């Protein structure tokens, strides 16, 4: 915990800069998810207004190439079997081919919806126009990832399916400006069934309401333009979200507050139009108390070391606050549904090839 | 891992039984490297061999052993899990043995999605719940709010129709331990909401009394209050159908350390008001809101918003009580 509790902007810039280059070995368990961590670093630096200062145009271009090298295209012989989109990293041994338009199918080579989502957002933040994104292949793959109950599995060979990936599929469809890969009625049905007796939203029918899926469902509905249709009672869901504020936010009833829920719940509240109802000052104080001397944020105030996810969520949560006190004035507004700077979104998004001239 | 611990460790790529394998490196050709993980060299070596055997779709005992080694390094590597599942099935391995084999790992990685999914795949293939409830019980004993364990429990119950009444006693034990455990409360609602038979009036009555008893023990605990509303909704009634609940609120609402009795009292009073708006009951509502603002100070603006909604209701219904 810092002695003077204020927003440690410069330390956070250093933290994301370090992570962008190298992660210590205990991140081995994130080997398949490096794309997500790349997004946290790039978007984190962007929110802190330091992207151009830390990443040279040359490295930016290399980053774009690295992202494109993770794209899986259809195989010319067997076509698209639901595996198209982005990998989280080249961990299955693929050659570095950022300009490929075909991918020879190999066993277990499959995209992951969370990686496709974070790849696309990262490309937008880096100013790429998405011209090398194989939209048709991705949309067709999404269609194969939707389950009978309306939820999504992240990869074609079957994994757990829940609200997280319904969100990722929705963001991808929004960015590519094509919803034909999602059966929206089924998706809404899944979201409705995941609303519990307390009007929070869970990972799937029957489970406990939880901040993460609550954000995912609300953001997905908002991107679909179906917020009113998809929530059984919008005011009760908002009330559930507001009840999660302790000082920071808890993810579930009677759990301790945790940095990342300042984003998950905070963003859900913002989308529902109720952000003015929360207590900003104690919320900020909690977040400042989870900052570390090494930069970055921890999950709980008593933890010593930061991690990338909570560091990003801490910054993003502060960016949501509409009336910014001087120490966080540097943060731009957040495009909460996509989880990126609104300023960058406004500047770069209209230039992508799927939205240009639309 | 420390170098010293591994003086006798022979990398996979140097072992005679792996000499037929040409390791495949990770082509991470963007220099300087981005988001570069500082892997242990043992992990890199094993992954190089893993990439090679996956490419040739090898189904073998040595592949199975390699997946276990790698999973211990990276329990979140879902490609390795998937490959292991395929190996287990194609090699006709004893899946029950695998469940036992993965038991310690389940306890160590109880917050990993992958380990639970692995168990689910095995059990689904076995078409038998075996002793999975026992494993779940052990995990919930260690972490009574573990989301994955509760979710897996629900999947098992649904898949094998395990809606025995004993589940209610099991849940009650958790609530005796920690009355604020929302996962346990949710499980109780899951039981009634998902079992094959519908909720009978008498059962709803029982559950309402159950929640009331728990409220009396600790009134400032949101869970049983929410549960009350949930059961009433499931029974297709409203708060107004249960005078006991109003009485409970009346008894507890003046305790200044509590929010929930007063908050439900407000809900009930508002429902009554909407049926019969009188100046007196309106003023009473305002009084309740003022008191809620004082007690629930994190949500002052929210209660103020409720006040505005009330005034809006009056305006729409031509009631000028202000």
From TrEMBL, chain A:
Belongs to the protein prenyltransferase subunit beta family. Heterodimer of FNTA and PGGT1B. PGGT1B mediates interaction with substrate peptides. SUPFAM superfamilies: Terpenoid cyclases/Protein prenyltransferases (SSF48239). Its cofactor is Zn(2+); Mg(2+). The keyword Magnesium applies. Its EC number is 2.5.1.59. It comes from Anaeromyces robustus. GO terms for cellular component: CAAX-protein geranylgeranyltransferase complex. It is an enzyme of class 2 (transferase). One of its GO terms (molecular function) is metal ion binding. Residues 7-327 form the Prenyltransferase alpha-alpha toroid domain. This is Geranylgeranyl transferase type-1 subunit beta. Keywords: Magnesium, Metal-binding, Prenyltransferase, Repeat, Transferase, Zinc. The keyword Zinc applies. It comes from the Eukaryota. InterPro entries: GGTase_I_beta (IPR041960), PGGT1B-like (IPR045089), Prenyltrans (IPR001330), Terpenoid_cyclase/PrenylTrfase (IPR008930).
UniProtKB/TrEMBL annotation, chain B:
Its EC number is 2.5.1.58, 2.5.1.59. Signal peptide: none annotated. One of its GO terms (molecular function) is protein farnesyltransferase activity. InterPro entries: Prenyl_trans_a. GO terms for cellular component: CAAX-protein geranylgeranyltransferase complex; protein farnesyltransferase complex. Its cofactor is Mg(2+). The keyword Repeat applies. Keywords: Magnesium, Prenyltransferase, Repeat, Transferase. Pfam families: PPTA. PROSITE patterns: PFTA. It comes from the Eukaryota. PANTHER family: PROTEIN FARNESYLTRANSFERASE ALPHA SUBUNIT/RAB GERANYLGERANYL TRANSFERASE ALPHA SUBUNIT, PROTEIN FARNESYLTRANSFERASE_GERANYLGERANYLTRANSFERASE TYPE-1 SUBUNIT ALPHA. Belongs to the protein prenyltransferase subunit alpha family. This is Protein farnesyltransferase/geranylgeranyltransferase type-1 subunit alpha. It comes from Anaeromyces robustus.
């Amino acid at each position: 915990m810092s002695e003077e509790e204020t927003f440690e902007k410069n330390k956070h810039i250093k933290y994301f800069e370090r992570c962008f280059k190298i992660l210590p070995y205990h991140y081995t368990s994130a080997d398949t998810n490096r794309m997500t961590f790349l997004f946290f670093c790039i978007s984190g630096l962007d929110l802190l207004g330091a992207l151009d200062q830390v990443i040279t145009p040359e490295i930016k271009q290399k980053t774009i190439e690295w992202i494109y090298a993770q794209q899986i295209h259809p195989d010319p012989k067997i076509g698209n079997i639901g595996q198209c989109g982005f990998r989280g990293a080249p961990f299955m041994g693929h050659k570095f081919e950022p300009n490929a338009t075909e991918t020879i199918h190999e066993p277990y080579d499959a995209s992951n919806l969370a990686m496709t989502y974070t790849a696309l957002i990262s490309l937008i933040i880096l100013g790429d126009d998405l011209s090398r994104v194989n939209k048709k292949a991705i949309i067709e793959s999404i269609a194969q990832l939707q389950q009978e109950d309306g939820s999504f599995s992240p990869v074609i060979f079957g994994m757990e399916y829940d609200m997280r990936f319904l969100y990722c599929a929705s963001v991808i469809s929004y960015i590519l400006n094509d919803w034909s890969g999602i059966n929206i009625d089924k998706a809404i049905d899944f979201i409705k069934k995941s609303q519990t007796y307390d009007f929070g939203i869970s990972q799937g029918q029957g489970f406990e309401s939880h901040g993460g899926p609550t954000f995912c469902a609300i953001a997905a509905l908002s991107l679909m333009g179906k917020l009113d249709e998809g929530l059984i009672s919008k005011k009760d869901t908002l009330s559930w979200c507001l009840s999660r504020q302790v000082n920071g936010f808890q993810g579930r009833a009677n759990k301790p507050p945790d940095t990342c829920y300042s984003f998950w719940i905070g963003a859900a509240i913002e989308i529902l139009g109720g952000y003015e109802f929360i207590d900003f000052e104690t919320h900020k104080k909690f977040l400042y108390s989870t900052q570390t001397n090494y930069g970055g944020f921890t999950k709980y105030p008593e933890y010593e070391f930061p991690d990338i996810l909570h560091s990003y969520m801490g910054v993003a949560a502060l960016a949501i606050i509409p009336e910014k006190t001087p120490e966080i004035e540097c943060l731009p507004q957040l495009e909460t549904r996509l989880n990126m700077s609104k300023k960058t979104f406004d500047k770069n998004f209209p230039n992508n090839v799927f939205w240009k001239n639309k | 891992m420390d170098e010293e611990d591994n003086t006798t460790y022979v990398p996979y790529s140097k072992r005679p039984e792996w000499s037929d394998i040409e390791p495949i490196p990770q082509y991470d050709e963007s220099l300087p490297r981005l988001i570069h993980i500082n892997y242990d060299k043992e992990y890199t070596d094993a992954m190089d061999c893993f990439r090679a055997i996956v490419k040739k779709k090898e189904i073998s005992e040595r592949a199975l052993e390699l997946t276990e080694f790698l999973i211990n390094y990276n329990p979140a590597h879902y490609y390795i899990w998937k490959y292991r599942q395929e190996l287990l099935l194609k090699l006709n391995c004893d899946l029950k043995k695998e469940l036992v084999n993965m038991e310690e790992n389940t306890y160590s990685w109880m917050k990993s999605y992958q380990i639970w999914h692995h168990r689910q795949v095995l059990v689904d293939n076995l078409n038998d719940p075996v002793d999975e409830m026992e494993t779940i019980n052990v995990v919930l004993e260690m972490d009574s709010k573990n989301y994955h364990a509760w979710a897996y429990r629900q999947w098992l119950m649904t898949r094998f129709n395990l809606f025995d009444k004993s589940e209610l006693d099991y849940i009650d034990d958790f609530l005796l331990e920690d009355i604020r455990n929302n996962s346990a409360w949710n499980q109780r609602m899951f039981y009634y909401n998902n079992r094959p038979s519908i909720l009978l009036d008498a059962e709803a009555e029982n559950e309402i009394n159950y929640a009331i008893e728990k409220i009396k023990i600790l009134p400032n605990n949101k869970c049983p209050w929410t549960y009350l509303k949930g059961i009433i909704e499931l029974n297709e009634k409203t708060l107004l159908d249960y005078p006991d609940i109003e009485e409970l609120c009346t008894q507890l609402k003046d305790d200044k350390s509590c929010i929930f009795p007063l908050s439900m009292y407000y809900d009930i009073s508002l429902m009554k008001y909407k049926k019969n708006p009188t100046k007196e009951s309106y003023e009473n509502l305002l009084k309740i809101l003022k008191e809620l603002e004082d007690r629930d100070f994190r949500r002052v603006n929210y209660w103020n918003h409720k006040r505005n909604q009330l005034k809006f209701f009056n305006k729409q219904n031509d009631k000028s009580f202000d």
